[in-house]
Amino acid sequence: MSTSQRADPLIGRLVDGRYRVRARIARGGMATVYVATDLRLERRVALKVMHGHLSDDSVFQSRFIQEARAAARLADPHVVNVFDQGQDSDMAYMVMEYLPGITLRDLLKEHRRLSVPQTITIMDAILSGLAAAHRAGIVHRDVKPENVLLAEDGRIKIGDFGLARATTANTASGQMLLGTIAYLAPELVTRGSADARSDIYALGIMLYEMLTGEQPYKGEQPMQIAYQHATDSVPRPSAKNPGVPEQLDELVLWATERSPDARPVDADEMLRRLRDIERELGVAPQVARTLAIGTAVAEEGYDSGELTKALPAALTGPQPVADDADNATRLRRAARRRAAKGGWLVTIVLLLAAIAGGTGWWFGSGPGSLVAVPAVEGLTFEEAQSALRAETLVAERGEEYSLEIETGRVIRTEPGSGERLDKDSTVRVVVSLGPQPHDLGPLAGGTLDEVTATLQQAKVGLTDPEYLFTDAADGTVVAASVVRPSGGDPVDCTNGCTVYEGDTASLVVSRGPVPDVSGLRVDDAVRVLEGVELVVSDNRPTQNSEDIAKGNVIGLADRDGGGDWRPGDTVTLIISDGPPLFPVPDVDGMTRDEAKRALSNAGFTAEYLSTWDLFPNDATEVESQSPSAGSMVERGTRVSLRFNVSG
Question: Which residue in the list 106, 142, 199, 249 is annotated as catalytic?
Answer without folding.
Answer: 142
